[in-house]
User: What shape does this take?
Amino acid sequence: MINTENLIDYLSPVKIENIIDIKKLNINQLGNQISFFNGQNNDLSQFDIGIIGMQSNHSSPSKLNAADKVRQELYQLFSWTDNIKVIDLGNVNQGNSINDSVIAFETVLKDLLAQNLFCLIIGDDQDLSYYQYKAYEELNQKINVVVMDEKIDIDDHFDLTSKNQSYINKIFAHKPSHLFNYIQVAYQNFLVNPYQVELLRKKSFECYRLGYVLENMKRVEPILRNADMLSMDISSIKYSDAPGQKNHSPNGFSAHDVCRIGRYAGLSDTLSSLGFYEYFTENDTKGLTAQVIAQGIWHFIGGYYERNPEDPTIYNSDNLRYNVNITDKGEEIVFHKSKRTGRWWMQVPLVHNDEQPFVLVPCSEEEYNTACKREIPDRWLKALMKYSQ
Assistant: This one.
């Protein structure tokens, strides 16, 4: 773990004058609302969120200023949240090799997570997700990983012994494992080998098609509510809304969807890192993609400062409990709803655990309505299998 005083060895502070003219900004624009790491002894304990730029690919100068392009758009946005405690930590220094760079990136994240500083990452390569995951290792806790991508980046021949693995394979193979659940969101069937989906499901992991979440974007909220880290590939956004990507898919999330995802991520009580990856500036001629990412971050910040940890099992006027019979024998699923936030949970029994007979799993009213039809919700079954392992 690094000492905060030595962050300058790993980070290059942002040269704000090269990005935007702060003097021309309104006092309420984000460029005047956040703090900037200056290479000296910043006390990070006074901040909630740290912004980090990362370029791991030495051979791609077009990506060099990806984070700064997003900053240029972000700092112009008006803040509607009072007293935000956000610091821009700058960009991770490049080492002599890609391996040196990613180790520095991982080291910085480890230190910041240990200090309970939310890590907001703008990176060039989604392979950095593996190092984002590794940064949680010293926290000694199992984590839930959510990845949003139009494809599933698992090698067709799943070989945990291979040295040339995708980042997802590396996450699954990492020892000691601190992975509890992996959730793949927004994959498109025609871009994905059915074998990959089958493999994830056999491991009791979760997969949600793009069409499934677009049908009702509220389905994303319970997915993110218990997540610890989120990795978002820009290719999960349709090309017309985010042309700054290597793929040119006509399908994907809209700019509006990204804003909703940002807000849901901010509202999540457990999420502690968020990475936007695979932004190609050379394809983003009018800065549209940078604007989409910046606006997603804006909504994240707003959601973060509306976080409202709650225990729906407490008996009071704010919480509702529903016991739903699913068989004629009286077997039931118990649901909880918060009247304050409108969020739902369901109880999943823990077998052979007298001290903790059940665990609360985030869900939506959709699962409750399914149970009322005497059908067992798919999310409940998946959770039962996961906690029974």
